[in-house]
Amino acid sequence: MNIGGQWTFDFGVVKMVHAAHSSSMPDGSYGGNPGGFIITSKEATFYYAGDTALTQDMKLIGKNYKLDLAFLPVGDNFTMGYADAVIASKMIKCDTVIGMHYDTFGYIEIDHKKVKNKFKDEEINLHLIKIGETFNTDMGKIIAIANQKAVLVKPQPLLIWLQVLQF
Order of strands across the sheet with 134-137? Predict the structure, then answer.
């Protein structure tokens, strides 16, 4: 799949969207195009932003999809930070956000209280899930895995797809 493309799976439709980020492997070789994904199933529609900065393309997501949930980076330095994530939430018109890409090392540590208050002030529900912690939603259970990326556990086919996104 490439940016702008989509594919229909047994569980629903996956569309790859633009993400603004560098892309290299640990050995320095080219890692391909960075991307985010909009996943639509009969249970829910959600946006997995991936490693990205705030972009104008996010306005198109808000215009063309009714999102139930968004996974947005909040750690700053290597991706957008929490202030840009609040703006992104408004652009994509999603008021339920799972924060990701934070607290795994010093460069991206966040002040949880400050970040949560910023989202709350804008009437956006932010959930910061600790590694290994689960969080229940109407769509199913969400669990944070080792590198602080959040994964939707139910429905099962979405878990399989999101596990692919992690690596």
Answer: 134-137, 140-144, 150-152
